[in-house]
Write a structure and sequence with these properties.
With 289 residues, this protein is an alpha+beta fold. It contains ten helices and eleven strands.
């Protein structure tokens, strides 16, 4: 078992090219690979209800089986437990799954009802950044989620801490945001696939300031996948509520973000910088998909 600590960032349409030319990545040649993933669950979504995700991943001629548990965090930064191992295929290693505590907690009968639910297919470009404080994997994913005839685009950046201080991940994101239009994203590919399969999104409740930030970010994730402008309105309302609850610095950034969402072309570098500033000021954890 490993503990995965990463920051997930959604990119604007010009984001991938801006990232590739960012000074922080200058002179580094990324490793590129194609990842094909099939996600499994029971017909009624037992794993999704437990905020767990199970996938088989084809990469570089190997088949990897991965189980991830409920995540915790906010503002794009998350921490999850993860089990991953190579399997012979073509199907799941049910015996290996049966030995894992999260699967045991779901009770008997779940393993026998697992079936493919949706798929993701994307190209990943990976850069490694290391200094005295941390080692971070920078992964740019471009592709799509497919489920029951529906599709949603993947255009995201994952900054995964391999070693060192988690604060270095947010610091790197802030540097990238100076030149790359991006924003925090709290919704995993598995949760996005589940929403696509069901044909509906659900917003988390508000509460303390960190929960309102989480609600706003999830609403923007839903907007990206559905194109339904009602989600932009929901995100704007959440930032407005956050502006009422936060201290002066939080209130100012939340107010500016709400103002930006009044316009269609809201995802700018300024938007991303303010959203990441909120993530740094509001480190309280919420449950993630």
């Amino acid at each position: 078992m490993a503990n995965e600590i990463e920051l997930k960032l959604a990119l604007g349409s010009t984001g991938p090219e801006a990232l590739r030319h960012h000074p922080g990545l200058a002179g580094l040649v990324p490793r590129t690979t194609r990842l094909g993933n099939t996600y499994f669950d029971t017909p009624e979504g037992t794993l999704e209800a437990a905020r767990a995700a199970l996938r088989l991943r084809h990469v570089d001629g190997r088949l990897l089986q991965t189980l991830k548990t409920r995540g915790h965090g906010s503002g794009g930064l998350s921490s999850r437990d993860e089990w991953e191992w190579e399997v012979p295929g073509p199907g799941l290693d049910l015996a290996g799954l049966a030995a894992l505590p999260p699967m045991q907690a779901l009770g008997e009968g779940v393993l026998g009802r697992l079936a493919p639910r949706f798929a993701t297919d994307f190209v990943r470009e990976i850069w490694w950044l290391e200094d005295d404080s941390a080692s971070i994997e920078v992964a740019l994913d471009i592709g799509e989620i497919r489920s029951d005839g529906r599709e949603a685009p993947i255009r995201e950046l994952e900054l995964e801490l391999k070693e060192g201080d988690p604060a270095a991940v947010l610091e790197l994101a802030a540097r990238l945001a100076e030149d790359v239009p991006l924003r925090p994203s709290d919704t995993s590919k598995a949760a996005r696939g589940g929403a696509l399969l069901a044909g509906r999104w659900a917003l988390p409740e508000g509460g303390p300031p960190g929960a309102w930030l989480h609600r706003a970010v999830v609403a923007l994730d839903a907007l990206a996948d559905t194109g339904d402008d009602a989600w932009r309105h929901q995100a704007r309302q959440a930032f407005q509520r956050l502006a009422e609850l936060g201290d002066d610095a939080v209130s100012a950034d939340a107010h500016r973000l709400a103002e930006a969402l009044a316009t269609p072309d809201w995802l700018t570098t300024a938007f991303g910088q303010r959203a990441l500033a909120l993530a740094r000021r509001l480190p309280g954890e919420v449950s993630l998909g």
